[in-house]
Design goal:
This protein is of the alpha/beta class. The protein is built from seven helices and 15 strands. The chain has a five-stranded antiparallel sheet, with helices on one face. β6 and β7 form a beta hairpin. The longest helix is centred in the last third of the chain and has 18 residues.
Amino acid sequence: MTSPGSRRPPGTALLVLLAAVALVATACQEPERSGSPVCRRGSPRITVYQGPDGDCIPRRRVVGYRCEGADPVVVFDAGSGSERRFLGGAFTVPVPRLPDDAQVIGVGDGAQLVAVPDDPGRLYTVRGSSVWRWLALPEPSSIDAVPQAFMLGDSLLDGGTPAMIAALPDWSLEIDATNGRGSATGVSIAEARTAEDQVVVVELGTNDRGVDTFTANAGRILSAFRKVPLVLWQNVEGPPDVVPADEINAAIEALAGRRPNVAIADWNEEVPEEYLSDGVHPDPEHQDAMAALVAPMLQRWWTASTEQPACD
């Protein structure tokens, strides 16, 4: 047993191992192709991972897909009763560090693949000093034939409802949005909801002024939706004297990173300021801004969850 003064910081041993695994695969890496150099098999869009021992991991155990125009997918135990899928790209969330019990699986595409043995719903990638938590996908058999989503928001969602419905014609949508709604009201709605939703979209935070209160409320909302396969939270944008966007968005990111079923729709980054008439709300010509951001993410999630992963 080591003394407190001699203990390594949590995660130090794992980071040392990550560095060692990276050295095995980067000496002759060609960035234009996918996977570790000694483990490439066929298409550069298929990632065959190299294990910590230097051997290639069989694709039946774990394989990655990087198809053009789609977010990357990692599949474990493909075709078996215990198959697991994870969605990357826009569905990843940055986290400050890996869990203490995380273990390196392998390396591919210049990143380390890291899992938590006792929590099969969590997957991380590490590139340099950056750690990203991937989105766990549901079992395809658990998804209904008709895609369904519940959307909870304020005036931004309210104004964008017609465009959202038009952008998702094959989806069954239930939209609850009203002007001026804050996260406290969102808690009441989330905790009272009994429907078994496939997807929940949350667009709240713009009307919150106290970051600590928002963080507590947002945590309760996410806890209420913890069994929903996908919770997509749209972050906020606005003038600093009106919306504490940086603090609110940091809280959303921190909360999302702890939950494997949560992704972020990055309104703050993706929607140009010139679209917003008052720095917050879209002008009349861009009432479809939220639909343009959220609808493609829902469609990509649905495809990744229900269709067999493959690149054409």
